[in-house]
Write a structure and sequence with these properties.
- The chain is an all-alpha fold and 34 residues long.
- The longest helix is centred in the middle third of the chain and has 26 residues.
């Protein structure tokens, strides 16, 4: 957890990556449904 205190930007990047990954998965699932 010390790394987050040293570089808060890293945690933001991880959140963005997770969000993009989640959106991409949901988007693909929506296409499959269609």
């Amino acid at each position: 957890m010390d790394d987050i205190n040293e570089s808060p930007d890293l945690s933001i990047v991880k959140r963005l990556r997770g969000l993009l990954l989640y959106i991409s998965i949901v988007h693909v699932n929506d296409i499959d449904d269609i």
